[in-house]
Specification:
The chain is of the alpha/beta class. The chain is built from eleven helices and seven strands. The strands form two sheets. The protein has a four-stranded parallel beta sheet. It has a three-stranded antiparallel beta sheet with strand order 1-3-2. 28% of the residues are buried.
Length: 279
Amino acid sequence: MRTLNREVKILRALGGDTRFRLARLLLAEEVCVCELESILGISQPAVSQQLRILREAGLLDARREGNWVFYRIEPASLLEALDSVRDSLMVDPREGEGLPADLAALAEFIEEPMENCPDRIPRGSRPLTSRYPVGISFICTGNSCRSQMAEYFVRAFGDPGRVRAESSGLEPKGVHPSTIRVMGELGIDLSDAQSRLLDVRALSRADLAITLCGDARESCPVVPPEVQMEHWDLPDPAKLEGSEEEILVGFRSVRDDISRRVREMLTELDALVGTRSGT
């Protein structure tokens, strides 16, 4: 069966607000990394990561001038790539390799009663697991603030025999000192916390994976269908500017939001899993 690696890469490259904005800029003008960093308001490594994804999809042209590298997307290249995606999607069911089997499986599925369709099951009643402990993976970009808070709130509020939590990042940056400080204000010690790189194998063993920032949601690797995904849209306190006290106020606000979300999640999971396991 022919693989669709290129088409998938093209769709991923254009997915998400940051890369879509980046593509629009590079279609309009030839731009260097430092200019993109300033325009988009993200770090140089983050810009480079987004450019890499565009390059791997075959959309990006680069030109070196002295010590500077300028990037651009040629409109003709983008149109050709989009045509390729369209052609891969708009196939005759009788001709697409592998598609007849997929269609047969779909026909069998939709013959089931509608209440069995996962999209019809309300949030909070989807089967995560029938046994304890429930494994939760918190993911953000730097694993320095939000995901660390979430992990340690689960440790503080949850029963370790019923729920386990870990956190990781796409680009670990070390635990932010203000994270340690504001969690310490609640008596939660993060002195042993460490930033960890996202491990796809560990992620596949989780029951629930929660992303806490847009970059993590866009770049999170494909996980097995039995791992339920959820997104908490939270501001990044590490990007706050102002006096030390103003920054701490921002950290406390994010901390308290995460605390509330974790408590609600644990209550929901406890009721759900307890019902399914008969406890």
